[in-house]
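To the wet lab folks,

You asked to see what we're planning to order before we commit. Fair enough. Below is the target structure as tokens, and below that is the sequence we designed to fit it. If anything looks off to you, flag it before the synthesis order goes out.
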């Protein structure tokens, strides 16, 4: 199942961000994004995979964050996500089995049911957890995306390749017990 995954489709609120909507005194929306999730997306892209955002709400902050991360397809304000998900399959020329979809709320269930690998953050609603192939230990906006990416890239044998630049910079006299890669599969 995980061998075929090459496209990562992410919801925003409750997945990339923690689900809170904060407005300043001028009504400007403020979102907090997890840096580990963002770096995970960079590793995903470095592995040669692709990523997209499919959100029920339009958000300038989310669009800006997606652009910073190099996410090439951003769909915002989508109330019925399945038709857009189907368009994504055509755009990326990928079968549904090649998609990992990460969602947290009811609107995410239809595309999750079609995706080859459906993931729910730990704090997703129960109905979403039931349709998911995998439920992360981390909450949305708090490492769930990174956990998902590490899981897939490790399974695909790509995690070592995308993190090699860090492994190669370890001092040669570093004790084995301090090597973060020594016990990885």
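Sequence we intend to order:
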């Amino acid at each position: 199942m995980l061998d075929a995954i090459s496209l990562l489709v992410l919801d925003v609120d409750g997945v990339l961000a923690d689900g809170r909507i904060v407005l300043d005194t001028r009504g400007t929306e403020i979102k907090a994004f997890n840096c580990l999730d963002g770096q995970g997306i960079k590793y995903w892209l470095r592995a040669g995979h692709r990523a997209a955002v499919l959100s029920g709400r339009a958000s300038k902050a989310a669009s800006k964050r997606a652009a910073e991360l190099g996410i090439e397809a951003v769909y915002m304000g989508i109330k019925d996500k399945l038709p857009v998900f189907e368009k994504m399959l055509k755009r990326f020329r990928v079968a549904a089995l090649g998609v990992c979809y990460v969602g947290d709320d009811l609107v995410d269930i239809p595309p999750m049911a079609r995706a080859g690998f459906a993931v729910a953050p730990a704090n997703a609603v129960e109905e979403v957890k039931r349709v998911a192939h995998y439920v992360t230990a981390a909450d949305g906006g708090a490492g769930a995306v990174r956990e998902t990416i590490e899981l897939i890239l490790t399974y695909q044998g790509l995690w070592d390749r995308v993190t090699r630049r860090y492994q190669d910079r370890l001092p040669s006299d570093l004790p084995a017990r301090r090597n973060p890669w020594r016990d990885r599969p």
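Structural context that might help your review: The chain has one domain: 2-178. The first helix runs from residue 35 to 46.

Thanks,
Computational group
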